[in-house]
Amino acid sequence: MRSIFWKLLAISLLTGLGTWGGVPFNSHASAALNQDSEDTSRRGKAEVVIIVCQLVGTGTPIGSAPYNVIVAGVSHSGGGPAVQVGSECGQALASVLSAGFRLRDVEAQSSLIYTLIDR
Which tens digit of pLDDT belongs to each residue from 32-75? Predict the structure, then answer.
């Protein structure tokens, strides 16, 4: 019951972020790999970082509260800062955003999938 609550809370927060920040939600996170960037001086294609985050319970019994949101997977199309699997999701997103990438898509399923492209 608690895990459903946390998943619903995460989806609600992402929906609010999408509404407030104008972030488009779609099921084609990998489609950004082939989209052109506004800054075409680098190679004509946008560099893309896809970060998959997952809610993990760290309490006893295993999988119960308290919860952390960690990086479960990362994919790069080229450059971008190094993001380690198992690191904190918020820190990973902050690192990529501070490197000049912007949030392109967010998808919420059993995990959160962030697609970021360079500016």
Answer: 444 444 444 445 677 999 999 999 998 888 888 899 999 999 99
Determine how many CB atoms are found less than 10 A away from the CB of residue 111. Answer: 16
Distance CA 12, CA 4 (A): 12
In this structure, what token pair is assigned to residue 9? 């809370």
* Whole-number Å distance between alpha carbons of 26 and 109: 11
The band of 7, judged by pLDDT with boundaries at 50, 70 and 90, is: low
Instruction: Give the H or E element holding residue 71.
Output: strand 64-76
Domain spans of the chain? 2-118
Residues 6+ apart with CB under 8 A from 37: 45, 46, 47, 117, 118, 119
